Amino acid sequence: MLKRLVVLALLMLSAPLPALAQAPDPAGKLTTEAIIKRTLEGRFGGVKVDAVAKTPYLGLYEVRMESEIIYTDEKMNYIFSGNIIDGKNMQNLTEKRLRDLSSIKWGDLPLDTAVKTVRGTGKRMVAVFSDPNCPYCKRFEKDLAKVDNITIYTFLYPILSQDSLDKTKGVWCSADKSKAWNDLMLNGTVPATARCDTPIERTLELGRKYRVTGTPTLFFTNGERVPGAVPAEQVEKLLAENSK
Asked: Which H helix or E strand runs over 32?
């Protein structure tokens, strides 16, 4: 997606802007953000612009398309694809903005549809969308096993294959869901084939709603989303930040 946007941005720079970007709306109703949105959607050939917002720096406008952010000036003479860094504290403003935009409300998660694992006091919490056939998920589970005093809500998210779906059904229908999941991910013990009512379809819908496109994807109690098999040390750091 990002490579395509870069190419489109370069094409846009080399071509004259359409009248829409150069002339005010006849009715005087369109905002600058609306004009940028409509113009870029036309120039990007079918790519949907989710939102446009003015930033507090350099007079730039933030353009959101799915999980990407690009920037443009008011007249759309230039398109910027990349990270904006705060020169004072070296904070990656683009990365922070993406984290904020992809966050959720912890209270909106249907935790009763997840496999619950409690270790130690269980006072710290994290939710994980995971596929049993995902090699990164298996690596992550081995690291996560080192973290104590935690409650893990695992949302069974079989997006890789039919075999993933069969395994998640086996886990959910087990007498001890948490044990079945850990045995599968840590020891490779596949649960027996079973049939029962499962929330897996609802979890798949939930993942689509939250645009969970890969596994593992973590959510913390402050709503922050963290994709990928992060190491135990980073999980500890994120849990500590959430407990403040």
From this structure: helix 32-43
**One domain for residues 96 and 114:** no
pLDDT in tens, 122-154: 999 999 999 999 999 999 999 999 999 999 999
- Report pLDDT for 135: 96
Tokens standing for residue 125? 């919490």
Which of 101, 123, 155 is at the close of a domain? Answer: 101
Residue 124 main-chain phi, psi, to 5 deg: -95, 145
CA distance 37 to 148: 47
Q: 104-139 b/e with 16+ CB inside 10 Å = b?
A: bebeebeeebbbebeeeeeebbbbbbbbbbbeebbe
Give the 3-state secondary structure of residue 85: strand
Q: Which of 79, 83, 80 has the alpha carbon at shortest distance from 93?
A: 83
Over 60: is that where the pLDDT of 20 sits? Answer: no
Using the 3D structure, point to which of 56, 78, 101 is the last residue of a domain. 101
Going 193 to 198 to 203 to 205, the CA torsion angle's sign is positive
- Looking at the structure of the chain, the number of domains it has is 2
Can you give the residue range of the structural domain that contains 128? 106-242
Please tell me whether residues 158 and 215 are part of one structural domain. yes
Distance CA(50)–CA(73), nearest Å, equals 17
124 plus 214 within the same structural domain: yes
Which of 197, 224, 217, 191 has the alpha carbon at shortest distance from 113? 197
- Here the CATH number for the domain that contains residue 180 is 3.40.30.10
Give the helix/strand (H/E) hosting 115.
Answer: strand 115-119
What predicted TM-score, i.e. pTM, was given to this entire model?
0.71
